[in-house]
Amino acid sequence: MGKAVLGPKRKRRPRSLTAFSTFPLLPGVLGAIDVATPSPTPYSKLEAITDPARSGSELSLVEWGCRSFAITIDGLSAFLSQVLGPWSQSDLFLQVTPAKLILGFLSALLIILLLRIARRILKRVRREPKTSESQRYWIDGLLHAFRKGLGIFAWVTALFLFVSPLLPHLAIALNSQAPFEIASRLAEIGYFVSLVVFAYFAVQLVGGWLNHLAQRQPRRWYDPTFPLVGQLIYYNFLLISFQYLIELLRLPGSAAAVSSKVVSIVSILVNTVMLIQMVRALEDIAMVRTEHRGYDTYRYRGLQTRLRVLRQLIIFVLVIICAATILLNFDPVRQIGTGLLASAGVAGVIVGLAAQKSLSTIIAGLQIAVTSPMKIDDVVVVDGENGQIEEISLTYVVVKVWDQRRLILPITYFIDKSFQNWTRSSSELLGTVFLYVDYMVPIDELRAEANRLVSESTLWDKRVFGVQVTDWKTDSIEIRILVSAATAGRLFDLRCEVREKLLTYLQQLEPSAFPRVRNVVARSGPQSDGHQASLSDRNRE
Q1: CATH 2.30.30.60 location in the chain
Q2: Which regions of the chain carry the CATH code 3.30.70.100?
Q3: Rounded to whole angstroms, how far apart are CA atoms 100 and 80?
Q4: For residues 24 and 8, what is the distance between their CA atoms, to the nearest angstrom?
Q5: Which of 67, 246, 358, 386 fits 52 for a cystine, CB–CB 3.0-4.6 Å?
């Protein structure tokens, strides 16, 4: 009686192989499976195509786990079928039984339950009191990043465990190992995404902390480097993630080559930008340290000018190297470069002649940075124009004239020609006010009035004052009033003020002080000799 019951069950299993050819999603499998010829039992064939030791190729850790889990579920499904009864052994599709679906669903459900337990534990840890604000920031941020990554990891694992028992049946139907490879690849990408999500939130956490350090008070000289370090970590994280993603995708030859070039070009651009930012940060650090050392304004401006020109020179060199490195990633450009090397002698001469002016400009900019004949905000006289240095670049200098015009001069101008710099080492200047008055003006009274006017002026820096007769002309005398001021602008205003007030003084109190033309007429008497008469005639003339 027992044999009569077991017999039909053993005969039903070979007949279920015809499901592979009649399954509507697999129209091309009918020719690949010969149902007329005897074949091994489905379970032995399933084990043969699933066993990691029989794959014939090196397997990744995820694919090895997939195959091993499928074999384990296959064994457990036989035990579960004996417990649940004959209905759990029926073929649903591709000889997949309800027992296998139940085991796959329970495995996925177990992972989801573990995820919920882990989230509850993380919430309890997050609610615990923290000793400081910094501790709360780091613990809450890391728990948030771990929670995000763990959620993606758990859902990918649950889906992977549910699908893994079905893969051997699909592989038998297709007579290919592709289902294992595709599922394992997708699972690897999912695990990689979970790791990237966790790292992304962690990197953002570090970046926020570094930005907070850069804004703290009092400011330290190395604080400007913190945002730069945060950006460096962030961009390198993106590049590394993208590079590993390309390796996981295992793209075909042409697509892999294009992706590799894109990653290379982006890496060059990112590194160049980061180097430029590093140069700017170093300039900022140098200026901050200069302020802390208490340098005077002239030494500070000189250092600012040198650092600015050097920064522009370094950035120019970095951009040239970046462009050349990017072009080397393209084969046609590389071949052109190889061809040019064959005629390097002629090309070198031509390029040298063509770039002579540019190189001389760059060298002039470097010389300006080293010798510092002028600085930012220096007051200069160039081509008869009085102005202030507004900008110094690698190739030109902008001079802001007093009437708000801008003179754009090549930087070589300040190397080849002379110019006046009124504030190179100090802004203190001396100025003169010239008066042309009559011979009879009282010099002492004029000196006292000038001294009073200058002393009462807020523009005078109390360094130099003097009144002197510097010349004697035919119709007047020249009086020079010497004054001093802290800056060129204040000196100009002081000279105008002294000139105007002395003019008012002379107009009101000494009207006879202004130059006059004198004529002396002498009459000759009877006793006058010829000599006296001729002298009188010359005086009248």
Answers
A1: 295-421
A2: 429-513
A3: 9
A4: 27
A5: 67
Instruction: Give the residue-averaged pLDDT of 214-226.
Output: 75
**165-170 average pLDDT score:** 85
In the numeric block, which tokens belong to residue 166?
A: 């079905």
Report pLDDT digits (tens) over 239-255.
Answer: 888 888 888 877 777 77
In terms of Cα–Cα distance, which of 97, 58, 59 is closest to 80? 97
Cα within 13 Å of Cα(247), Cβ side? 7
pLDDT digits (tens, 9 = 90+) for 67-77: 888 888 887 88
Task: Quote the CA–CA distance of 101 and 273 in Å, as a whole number.
Answer: 54
Looking at residue 91, what DSSP letter applies? -
**In the predicted structure, residue 331 carries a pLDDT above the cut 90:** no
Model pLDDT, residue 199: 92
CATH topology of domain 429-513: Alpha-Beta Plaits (3.30.70)
Query: How big is the chain by its Cα radius of gyration, in Å?
Result: 47
How far does CA 403 lie from the centroid of its chain? 37
Q: By the 8 A CB rule, do 41 and 66 touch?
A: no
The per-residue pLDDT for 35 is 35
Angle 449-454-458 from CA coordinates, rounded to 5°: 145
Beta bridge partners of 468: 480
Question: What six digits make up the tokens of 135?
Answer: 């501790």
- DSSP secondary structure letters along 416-479: HS--EETTSS---EEEEEEEEE-TTS-HHHHHHHHHHHHHH-TT--SS-EEEEEEEE-SS-EEE
The CATH number of domain 295-421 is 3.30.230.10: no
Residue linked to tokens 């000279």: 495
pLDDT at residue 137, rounded to an integer: 85
Going by pLDDT thresholds of 50, 70 and 90, the confidence category of residue 4 is: very low
Nearest alpha-carbon partner for 485 in 422, 426, 428, 434:
428
Give the 3-state secondary structure of residue 116.
Answer: helix
Q: Omega of the bond prior to 218 within 30 degrees of 0, cis? A: yes
Burial code (b: 16+ CB inside 10 Å, e: under 16) for 344-363 equals eeeeeeeeeeeeeeeeebbe
Specify the range with the lowest mean pLDDT, choosing from 39-48, 238-247, 425-434, 475-484: 39-48
**Burial status of residue 239 (CB atoms within 10 A of its CB: 0-12, 13-18, 19 or more):** middle
